[in-house]
Amino acid sequence: MIRTALICALSVSCLAPAMASSFAGSSAGASSAGSSASSASTSDDDKVVLQARDDAASFVASDGRIRGARLEAALRQLREDDADARTASDMQLAQAILAL
Prior knowledge:
mainly alpha
């Protein structure tokens, strides 16, 4: 759910179309146990991103000078989860977090 919103936010912020197209991964062929574990992991990832909103706001408002620990964790998580997020700047990802 958060990833879908992040995709929309990133595409609105004029990122390359290829980047916005693959944020939502697929779990084709996963067993129900695998899906359950995947869902729990995604939920934890979503929490990390949502908890970074205040840090993202400070980062954007300070033009990148204030970097909070929660924002750093969210940026790391987003980039670990999706190769396309690795090409986005910290500012673009922070703005996308705020748009959620």
